[in-house]
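Blinded run. Sample ID left blank on purpose so nobody reads anything into the name before looking at the predicted structure. Input follows.
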Amino acid sequence: MTTATSGTLLVNGSRIVIKIGSALLVDAATGKLRENWLATLAEDVARLRARGQQVIVVSSGAIAVGSKALGLGPRNTLALEESQAAAAFGQIGLARAYQQAMERHDIRIAQVLLTLGDTERRRAYLNARSTLTKLLDFGLVPVVNENDTVATTEIRYGDNDRLSARVASMVDADCLVLLSDVDGLYTDDPTRNPDAKLIPQVDAITPDIEAMAGTAGTDMSTGGMVTKLEAARIATEAGVHMVIAKGAVDHPLSAIEAGGNATWFMAHDTPVVARKRWISGALQPAGTIVVDAGAARALSQGRSLLPAGVSAVRGRFDRGDAVIVKDQAGTELGRGLIAYASDDAARIAGHKSGEIEALLGYRGRDEMIHRDHLALNRAAKRTHNAEAGQSTAGAQTSET
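Blinded prediction complete.
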């Protein structure tokens, strides 16, 4: 990959997720945060935002900070409850450090605590996605940390590499940047083999690529190249380009854009296309939504499904479940993630969005299924696009 190409991927992405490892943030000897390095990262983030890009940071470091301050040993020697206590203590200092670094550039941050489970359960996934999207709409930089005080398996074996990939997938990011203590994927362990070669671009994660991953991390982190490849698989399958680059330099994002050593993992779909493929093929539908003719035609034009266009609700499902969408002739139009549980969906079916609060007692979403969460069958698109003169009362054009 050329320098121009690698720089372009980061420069042109509208939504960037940056993962920062513990070894970069925390001095191993003192347990103190590297505030000077964090200041240069904040300058990079400010530059990205100045050119119109949205930024999310996924950060490690809470356990590393807390364990040193509490007089505990290295992370890999801690009992689960010690790790959780260290995280609870260290999280405060970590958040304060980010706030101080970013506010010098008039950037406001918001802290979001997640576990991998939150990104895998559909209901929690939708809630987290909505929260992160709204924070970006407010002009904030979300700083996502793993919720180590309640996580179990994630603390013992997990990492923020995979969490960052899940977050990037969740928010339809264009690029995921893994800043690490390594500068990319090598053909062999470069600390042991001086002939090891950096691989600048990976188009597919093959068995040969997997064989190149070592297991070594640092005493400050639980991740290694294996977890980074797992993150790359999650990200690229979701349509997100990912780069592994050495973070232990000042202005690490600028260094990537300038063509510094890195390994780029290439996605071959856009995030929206990748997510719709996941909806259509990977999820088991829990119910069925029947729509009228006007809504069916409007959906084929790329609009969201409103309650007014729903003529029947079948099955039992919860908010966030996958449902089949059919027209009144029984033809499957596609599948989507529903914004309401089945009982509530049945109550508001056929009604205008402005009536939702009066019907349910709370202000829900205007859309029954947002267009970003709807995967239509190609045949259904052709059929209903060919039908003319139909009402579009049951759907709307919705901003992403």
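Unblinding after everyone has recorded impressions. The radius of gyration is 23 Å.
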